[in-house]
């Protein structure tokens, strides 16, 4: 397991990237400011490109003790309570995940659940599995910029099949989304 303690600066870099994604998404800057910001981002790419590594050596997504696991793709779950069978926590969807009219983009929700349910599916010594399906029911708009409650648990395991379910509730306590994922354990040698 890669250690977040040894890569604090990288963890902070990804946190800064998330903040940049939110800020860029919500900004309407004058052209000269947009150009300066682009040059700053290009400088980041120039700085990091020589340190590109293989997937096995990659840090993003693999610093698993960190909220969001040091990757900027999926929304971050802040875990309050967890076991190998369940997880409870909080989620704030930033401006980056805005769809329209204050509601989260529909695609951001399965992105979130694939990560959260997938990790639960693989937890507890169950080993690696892959998403066979992810069913998401949108019951009410999921607001961005507000603290949401998340719950997920392993519903049942049938041979290689792991069924994992999850919910999101808004600050009023209303259910906004429920989801079910089927994760199929990989056979030896299966990619
Ligand atoms: C970065 C940090 C890393 C670690 C962090 C990890 C957390 C993130 C997790 C993300 C995981 C992903 O997104 S993975 C990426 C997205 N998913 C994929 O790319 C998967 C692509 N699909 C596949 O590779 C394959 O189809 C599998 C592995 C899912 C299943 O193929 P298989 O192994 O040949 O198994 P197969 O015999 O077909 O099916 C086994 C059983 O499951 C059932 N089954 C299979 N698919 C379905 C289905 N869609 N709907 C219903 N049932 C299904 C079959 O009927 C059968 O039931 P029965 O007859 O036995 O009853």
From TrEMBL:
In alphabetical order, the GO MF annotations are:
hydrolase activity
E.C. code: 3.1.2.2
**What superkingdom heads the lineage?**
Bacteria
Top enzyme class, one word, equals hydrolase
Where does it localize? Answer: Cell projection, Ruffle membrane; Cytoplasm; Membrane
Q: Which SUPFAM superfamilies match?
A: Thioesterase/thiol ester dehydrase-isomerase (SSF54637)
Please name the Pfam families in this protein's record. Answer: 4HBT (PF03061)
Alphabetically sorted, this entry's keywords are: Apoptosis, Cell membrane, Cell projection, Cytoplasm, Fatty acid metabolism, Hydrolase, Lipid metabolism, Membrane, Transit peptide
User: In its UniProt entry, what is this protein called?
Assistant: Acyl-coenzyme A thioesterase THEM4
| Record carries keyword Hydrolase | yes
Similarity section: Belongs to the THEM4/THEM5 thioesterase family.
């Amino acid at each position: 397991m890669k250690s977040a303690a040894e890569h604090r600066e990288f963890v902070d870099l990804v946190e800064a990237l998330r903040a940049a994604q939110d800020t860029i998404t919500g900004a309407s800057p004058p052209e000269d400011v947009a150009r300066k910001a682009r040059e700053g981002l290009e400088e980041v790419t120039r700085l990091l490109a020589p340190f590109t590594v293989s997937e096995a050596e990659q840090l993003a997504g693999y610093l698993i003790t960190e909220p969001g696991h040091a990757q900027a793709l999926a929304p971050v779950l802040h875990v309050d309570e967890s076991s190998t069978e369940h997880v409870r926590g909080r989620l704030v969807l930033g401006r980056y995940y805005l769809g329209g009219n204050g509601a989260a983009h529909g695609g951001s929700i399965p992105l979130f659940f694939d990560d959260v349910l997938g990790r639960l599916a693989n937890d507890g010594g169950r080993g690696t599995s892959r998403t066979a399906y992810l069913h998401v029911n949108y019951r009410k708009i999921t607001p961005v910029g507000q603290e949401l409650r998340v719950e997920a648990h392993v519903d049942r395991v049938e041979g290689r099949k792991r069924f994992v379910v999850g919910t999101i509730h808004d600050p009023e306590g209303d259910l906004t989304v429920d989801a079910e994922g089927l994760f199929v354990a990989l056979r030896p040698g299966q990619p």
